[in-house]
Amino acid sequence: MKKIMIKINLILIYFLLFFSIANAEIVKEIKIEGNKRVSDETIKVYGDIKPIGSDFSNADLDKILKNLYSTDFFENVSLQINNQILIINLKEYPVINKLILVGEKSTRISNEIKKMLNLKEKGSFIESNIEKDINVIKQLYSSIGYNFAEVEAKSRKLNEDKLDLIFDIKRGRVTKIGQITFSGNKKVKEKRLRDLIASEEDKFWKLISRNTRFSENLVNLDKRLLKNYYKSIGYYDVEVTSSSVEIIDKSKVNINYTIDAGTRYIISKIFTDVDSVYDKKLFFSFKRCLFRYYWRLLFSF
Q1: Fold observed for domain 12-92
Q2: Which end of the chain is more exposed for a tag (fewer CB within 10 A), N or C?
Q3: What is the 3-state secondary structure (H, E, C) of the chain?
């Protein structure tokens, strides 16, 4: 039975090799059409195209197709072998001549936006990236407190190969934090929790504080700060299970953090297990210091 299986496997291997060779064709010339800004040699390098005189199988053609699409230079690529000539037909993406941000006065923010975008000046205009870049811009504004920014993309055609890309931006108003509350099994006073987090309620005397602006990054930071504090006082299983945001209007939100402190673990005994070559008395002062620190922490809230 084993010998029969080996023979079957060998027959399959021979069949696949024969089929691959039978479907391969020797290419004596490579003809590239439709390219304007990308040179023939660059296409051959990026396509990883084998030299003239080589056999080209269907797998080779698929690889060339994949390689050329991955460059983001070409909107359409087609390949065929005709009379031992490999014909590569290309349609290049238009080039973005200028990327213009309308509505943003800050040069610093404009430069930061342009760094983060997928679409770049002098790069290919890939229409499927527009929606991604609109979301990138909105997320950036949200991180600095403008949570309801509106972004619209427009293009201005210069010729068949070039265009200007315009993002029309309306920041809107800064979203401020109206109220911060805590619910659940907190075990700690709200005043203490407010002192721990980075977010602050918007008050008239906090005009210069940026932490009164609502942003997802700030909320995530608050969660980490709360968890770290609870763990430092013995609540190792603490969960900040959710943070809900109530939108009052486009300029004000209320935040609520739901906390489940869980069980508090208390150190009942500290003992030392050291080699006999060490004097255990050296560790007594450390134990006393640790206990003093622990009890100060215990009654700090």
Answers
A1: Ubiquitin-like (UB roll) (3.10.20)
A2: N
A3: CHHHHHHHHHHHHHHHHHHHHHCCEECCEEEEECCCCCCHHHHHHHHCCCCCCCEECHHHHHHHHHHHHHCCCEEEEEEEEECCEEEEEEEECCEEEEEEEECCCCHHHHHHHHHHCCCCCCCECCHHHHHHHHHHHHHHHHHCCCCCCEEEEEEEECCCCEEEEEEEEECCCCCEEEEEEEEEECCCCHHHHHHHCCCCCCCCCCCCCHHHECCHHHHHHHHHHHHHHHHHCCCCCCEEEEEEEEEEECCEEEEEEEEECCCCCCCCCCCCCCCCCCCHHHHHHHHHHHHHHHHHHHCCC
Contact 167, 100 (CB under 8 A): yes
Q: What is the pLDDT of residues 210-253, one digit of tens each?
A: 788 888 889 999 999 999 999 988 899 999 977 778 887 778 88
> Whole-angstrom Cα distance, residue 294 to residue 57?
73
Cβ contact 74:47 at 8 Å: no
- Say which CATH architecture domain 176-260 belongs to: Roll (3.10)
